[in-house]
Amino acid sequence: AMPNFFGKYVRDMANDFIEDALDDYRCPTSDNVEAETYIDFRDMFLPSAEAGVVGGSGDGRYGDILPRAMNLIEDQLFSADENGLLAINDMLIAPLTKSQSGVEGAFKMNGTLVDLNKEEVERDIWKAFADNLRLTMSDLTITGLNTFRSPIKVLNPTSSSAHLLDNQLTLGIPSKPLDASIQFGIEVGDAKSPLATNNIMDLQLSMPTMEVLAVLFATVQESKFMKFPLK
């Protein structure tokens, strides 16, 4: 009974909660995006000559402030040492994480982060075993965040579309893996339930290296961008 209870009821509850939580955050569709109406990110983030090569207009229509800023960020934050580690680790990640957790490269969130409590079991077959279910997650700790290394891409325009931006993050080295831990709790039924249980588990994950790839689709109206007030 217990495997069926978790495989069906617990899974359905978690899926319903995630669907409800994301219901108000729908991604926009890419239908009918007119190139002449929206910002071409190749012209926005790349120097004129480079933008023209990858499909942009190459006429510098948005000025050179953002391309210069992107080059400055790459030179100052994304430059790598002999081990491939990026300068952003020492310049930003280490001091920020130390101020938050007291340890360089560590991020901590103490206390309860997620508390799902279902007090009414809808299906009669499960009511015979338990009338409530509670899932909790707490005390999140992540270490090794100061191991950003090459390759890295942030808001990198693509030649395939004016509205796509490539992003790539790589973290972790063998001597300093990316570790995460969280406390997971599950409570089923009360003292009268034959399936009554109240367990707390410490879950840990260790990754020597991690790579995150994301393609961002975004549209910005050119007219509004050009008229944005700067004070």
Helical content stands at 25-40%
Number of strands: 7
From the alpha-carbon coordinates, what is the Rg to the nearest angstrom? 24 Å
- Residue windows where pLDDT falls under 50 for at least 5 positions: none
> Between the first and last Cα atoms, what is the distance in angstroms?
66 Å
How confident is the prediction overall: mean pLDDT?
A: 83
Summed up, the helix count is 7
SSE-based structural type: alpha+beta
* Major β-sheet annotation: 4 strands, antiparallel
Shape: extended
Report the order of strands and helices: HHHHHEHEEEEEEH
The main sheet orders its strands as: 1-2-5-6
Strand content: 25-35%
Outline of the structure:
By secondary structure, the chain is α+β, with helices and mostly antiparallel strands. It contains 7 helices and 7 strands.
Describe this entry's structure for a reader:
The protein is an alpha+beta fold and 231 residues long. The protein has 7 helices and 7 strands; from the N terminus they run H-H-H-H-H-E-H-E-E-E-E-E-E-H. The chain has helices spanning 2-22, 41-45, 48-53, 65-76, 88-101, 124-127, 222-226; strands at 107-118, 133-143, 148-157, 164-171, 178-188, 197-207, 210-217. The strands form 2 sheets. The protein has a 4-stranded antiparallel sheet. A 3-stranded antiparallel sheet has the order 3-4-7. The longest helix is centred in the N-terminal third of the chain and has 21 residues, at 2-22. The protein is extended, with a radius of gyration of 24 Å. The N and C termini lie far apart (66 Å).
